[in-house]
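Notebook, bench 3.
Goal today: get a predicted structure for Olfactory receptor from Chrysemys picta bellii so we can plan the truncation constructs. The sequence was checked against the plasmid map this morning, with no discrepancies at the termini. Length recorded as 336 residues. Pasting the sequence as submitted so the record is complete.
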Amino acid sequence: MSMGGLLEYKIKFVMVGFATHPDWGLFVVFLSCYLIALTGNLLIIFVTMADAALHTPMYFFLRNLSFLEISYTSVTLPKILANLLSEDRTISFLGCATQMYFLLFLGGTECYLLAVMAYDRYVAICHPLHYPVLMNRRVYIGLAAASWLTNLLVLMGHIAAIFTLPFCGSNEINHFFCDVPPVMKLACGDTHRTEIAILLVALFFVLLPFTLILASYVRIISTILKMASAEGRQKTFSTCSSHLLVVTLFYGTACTMYLKPKSSHSPNSDKLIALLYSVVTPMLNPIIYSLRNKEVTGALRRLTEKNVLRINQSITIDRLVAPGLRGSRISPIEFN
């Protein structure tokens, strides 16, 4: 197969990540993961918006993260589910480029958003008295917007550089979706400059925000260790533990996938890593934040109790009113 870049938009790739088709067992597993990720992240968005006590910068960033996770899984999982049941596992040239763009765009946004969340915790713990000033509404909305907009234009050039390469031989992508390493394996000719560009972009979107996160947590841990009370140290660290778990899950897989040399990529290991950051992490994040965060669990409990009380009151009113209405008829004249 020979392609002349973006002009060859009619070319199709074939996704061969799964050995058997159809596979109902895997379909049920992936569908369950998708529904858990959607439900969990939507629940976090709803709870943090419904409870006034959670209208803070920390939970504003958490809502952004949950929206990102919903979008991230929706870029890949619907197509994966379709491929599991269909004999037609093709994806168009432009469709593959579009999927890769949004995958990298949302992943890059999450990298910087996690760095912003680490900075928020740094300000809250290391400069608590100045927190309302340093993290006012204008600042935290600006930081969130910067996380979304930083990679918008950079990635367009990045994707264009990949998909203007000549592709030779097989059009089969040994993966679940259009990710950078498996697509680059189909490219022929001199790909050295593109590989360097990919590495630089990965450093910008993965290593730079990860360095900012490390710097924030070095200061945070230093401040926590200086606290006189053991209870105070434990309570303060607990506010960061959920974020640390999410950072470890996300950056561990991202660094393994995008910062290792092309020669060390193997289809099976790449597919396993891809499942971790595209399926498992978005599913676990809401569980981590809800189970390990007392404010979120408290808000969920208050919201549940409020709705249960409202339902009970409605049932009680119906029972009190209903007997008085039995046996009585309202004439049209009385009604009017």
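The two ends are 78 Å apart (CA to CA). Residues 11-320 form a domain with the Rhopdopsin 7-helix transmembrane proteins fold (CATH 1.20.1070.10).
Flagging this for group meeting.
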